[in-house]
Amino acid sequence: DIQMTQSPSNLSASVGDRVTITCRASQNINSWLAWYQQKPGKAPKLLIYQASSLESGVPSRFSGERSGTEFTLTISSLQPDDFATYYCQQHNTYPYTFGQGTKMEIK
Amino acid sequence: EVLLVESGGGLVQPGGSLRLSCAASGFTYMDYWMAWFRQAPGKGLEWLGNIKQDGSEYYAPFLSGRFTISRDNAKNSLYLELNSLRPEDTAVYYCARGRVEHWSPPIFDYWGQGTLVTVST
Predict the structure, then answer these.
(1) How many CA atoms lie within 13 A of A86 on its CB side?
(2) Do B113 and A42 lie within an 8 Å CB cutoff?
(3) Least CB-CB distance to A92: which of B59, B62, B105?
(4) Which tens digit of pLDDT belongs to each residue from A57-69?
């Protein structure tokens, strides 16, 4: 199985901060990586697909990049609504696998 | 509006079976992949399997054949049959829609609210 190593596991930040979450794949997944946001008791919400494509309706402060097998999700200016848990997921190779998640909290 | 509504969760004893359903609306169901995921309490997300428009199925190997995904395109419905349930299968189970863009693998753009399955005596 492809391992997705996501860091950090926890992130404490303030409104207005620029934050970056990293996900590293254990082997090549091309650009088939998605980022999701999940709030407590809610379903995941797709933010970014194909590593860097912004899902319709998602604010432009979210962006994604790929460098080889390393992927990043950046939020350019944190808003109060952004405090949540974020997951990466590869869907290049079965079985599809997720990173362990990054819980973002208010500093 | 795309809507996915899961049902069928509940309390079941170890070794038991359960059938989850996912009712889809707001889109042409037969044109999309569908998938099941789960999330154990306080844990991360886990992919269980996909089903293509034509009914072809793909599963996570750790399931060892205990779970079966099916779909009924006439009823706009997705199903997950869970057998030989174990306490570690306790989780919220989500269905999701998979869209394809330019020969991509399915991109899971809409998710249901989830249904809780608890496996316990």
Answers:
(1) 29
(2) yes
(3) B105
(4) 999 999 999 999 9
